[in-house]
């Protein structure tokens, strides 16, 4: 029996809008119903479940759920989970069954259950990093090592065959959504008009360029930003969360995309100021290579991966630019996705 087939399913739908108290009550009912799958005692009642909304991310709604009990019992039983409610319209962007299949391969015990519009996952104790933390030597080395470990996983589909629906498949789908919902989209970049046809043409050019380079394919997380890195101070560990954009792709994308996240949203996407220097990127790649290969690597190998990461950073700008446009058509979150998309696309078209 596969790990995916063992994930229980519940007929619950958590509202994504409306009174927050009512939404928390539905989340509480959901978690109380799945007591047996969580290993919680049957006599525990939903009145003991504390629900705390988390304001993280730009796609989903998050609720931390925990049993309120004395500290000793809490430490002994670790009664915490995270309920992730999928954002409005995100099912059109993402294949949720494929995502769930990937999650169970990357971290078998991560997913506790699924419900109609979300999943319940393990809650990892610790603090989300901030962009300014990414340059700290200790955290940088831990992220590099964790990324290298993830890249040793080979993703397969539900039939056990290598997963072929990759980054390009996803972005092609997103551009189709833009063509349907934003057919008149246009923006100017250095005097060049960018519209739906331009996006489609650019994606085809990128696909040709990357395929010719014959990069090694690995399991890419796809979104290793600061908030998706949980630092547990007590254990001195980094854990990755949120595998929505995980797929088999060239590892330079994960590395280059991570470098772009040094200039994350809270830094107003100021890549000129916050994108890591060559020395900083080299040190990250050196640490990554040592973890991936188990020994020090030649300067030639490090330089080759740095160049691959440059391609990854370029694709990152295009990816999140297109993502922002799709989100602008469906998301209920209070965030200017159109402005975000224009900034990322401006960076992409300014770099080619």
From TrEMBL:
InterPro entries: Kinase-like_dom_sf. Its EC number is 2.7.1.82. One of its GO terms (cellular component) is cytoplasm. Pathway: Phospholipid metabolism; phosphatidylethanolamine biosynthesis; phosphatidylethanolamine from ethanolamine: step 1/3. One of its GO terms (molecular function) is ethanolamine kinase activity. GO terms for biological process: phosphatidylethanolamine biosynthetic process. It comes from the Eukaryota. Belongs to the choline/ethanolamine kinase family. PANTHER family: CHOLINE/ETHANOALAMINE KINASE, ETHANOLAMINE KINASE. This is ethanolamine kinase. It comes from Vannella robusta. The lineage of its organism: Eukaryota, Amoebozoa, Discosea, Flabellinia, Vannellidae.
């Amino acid at each position: 029996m596969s790990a995916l087939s063992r994930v229980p399913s519940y007929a619950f739908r958590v509202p994504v809008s409306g009174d927050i108290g009512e939404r928390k009550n539905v989340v509480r009912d959901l978690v109380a119903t799945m007591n047996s799958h969580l290993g919680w005692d049957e006599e525990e009642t939903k009145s003991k479940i504390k629900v705390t909304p988390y304001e993280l991310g730009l796609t989903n709604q998050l609720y931390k759920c925990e049993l309120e009990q004395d500290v000793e019992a809490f430490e002994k039983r670790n009664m915490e989970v995270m309920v992730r409610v999928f954002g409005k319209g995100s099912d059109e962007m993402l294949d949720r069954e494929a995502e769930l299949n990937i999650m169970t391969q990357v971290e078998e015990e991560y997913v506790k259950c699924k419900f109609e519009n979300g999943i319940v996952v393990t809650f990892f104790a610790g603090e989300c990093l901030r962009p300014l933390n990414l340059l700290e030597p200790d955290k940088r080395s831990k992220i590099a090592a964790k990324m290298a470990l993830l890249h040793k996983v080979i993703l397969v589909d539900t039939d056990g065959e290598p997963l072929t629906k990759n980054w390009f498949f996803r972005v092609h789908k997103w551009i189709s959504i833009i063509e349907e919902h934003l057919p008149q989209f246009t923006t100017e970049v250095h005097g060049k008009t960018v519209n739906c046809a331009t996006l489609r043409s650019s994606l085809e050019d990128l696909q040709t360029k990357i395929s010719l380079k014959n990069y090694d394919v690995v399991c890419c997380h796809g979104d290793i930003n600061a908030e998706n890195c949980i630092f547990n101070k007590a254990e001195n560990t980094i854990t990755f969360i949120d595998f929505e954009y995980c797929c088999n792709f060239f590892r330079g994308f994960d590395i280059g995309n991570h470098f772009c996240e040094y200039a994350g949203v809270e830094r107003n996407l100021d890549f000129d100021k916050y994108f890591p220097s060559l020395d900083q990127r080299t040190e990250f790649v050196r640490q990554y290579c040592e973890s991936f290969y188990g020994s020090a690597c030649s300067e030639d190998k490090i330089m080759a991966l740095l160049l691959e990461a440059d391609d990854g950073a370029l694709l990152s700008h295009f990816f999140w630019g297109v993502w922002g446009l799709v989100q602008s058509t469906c998301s209920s979150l209070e965030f200017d996705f159109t402005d975000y998309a224009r900034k990322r696309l401006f960076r992409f078209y300014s770099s080619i």
